[in-house]
């Protein structure tokens, strides 16, 4: 089943054409890595998928339901119903600094889903345990390391039971020694068949965990394939150039 289908998506900021006829699909259980230089449009693409940016034309179909079709957005209620099924993890964690770890995890289920406290508490503990941070449940975000903050952000996204998780450079703001703990949580999610789209500069993650890799360059998808296609037999000279600059 297709979780995301994007067809000829375009987006400009003024006369900066940031996404140029982007088309791809993500099936249930896929781990899709998006790689490419800074400024190639990766974040804008993710932001369009969860309606943090409005695209100009094309189709965005989520689990068979159009967010946008032929450049026309569906109703605000429909949009909310669609994006509630998706979780996003940002480079800078975006935890609420004045709330404890538990309160960060329970806020959206409480406000958006009116979830029962007991069930919410149990799931909160289970997800914190999953990311190895149950002992930090009452901590304030400011007392956590970057790697811990990002693991809390992942647990928080899981609290909404998303059908897909989007990650925008989840380890780019971390000290190198803290990236491993975050990547290992993501790898475990992949093992459990969580559908994920991951913008990353961690080529080892893209190579070893993803089953699909997209290389973006100047707002276009220049190449798409399996990790083997992209990392061992890249077709496009630009892909080769990018990989040799980063590996
Ligand atoms: P990437 O994530 O691949 O580094 P971005 O999607 O952040 O790329 O940016 C792509 C282009 O869009 C860049 O030229 C950037 O300056 C521009 N851009 C991104 N967000 C905005 C915005 N809110 N307003 C104007 N220009 C933007
Ligand atoms: Mg970006």
Automatic annotation (TrEMBL):
It is a peripheral membrane protein. The keyword Membrane applies. Pfam families: ABC_tran. Residues 4-243 form the ABC transporter domain. GO terms for molecular function: ABC-type amino acid transporter activity; ATP binding; ATP hydrolysis activity. One of its GO terms (cellular component) is plasma membrane. Keywords: Amino-acid transport, ATP-binding, Cell membrane, Membrane, Nucleotide-binding, Transport. Its main location: membrane. InterPro entries: AAA+_ATPase (IPR003593), ABC_ATPase_HisP-typ (IPR030679), ABC_transporter-like_ATP-bd (IPR003439), ABC_transporter-like_CS (IPR017871), MetN_ABC_transporter-like (IPR050086), P-loop_NTPase (IPR027417). It is found in: Cell membrane. Belongs to the ABC transporter superfamily. This is Amino acid ABC transporter ATPase. It comes from Acetobacterium bakii.
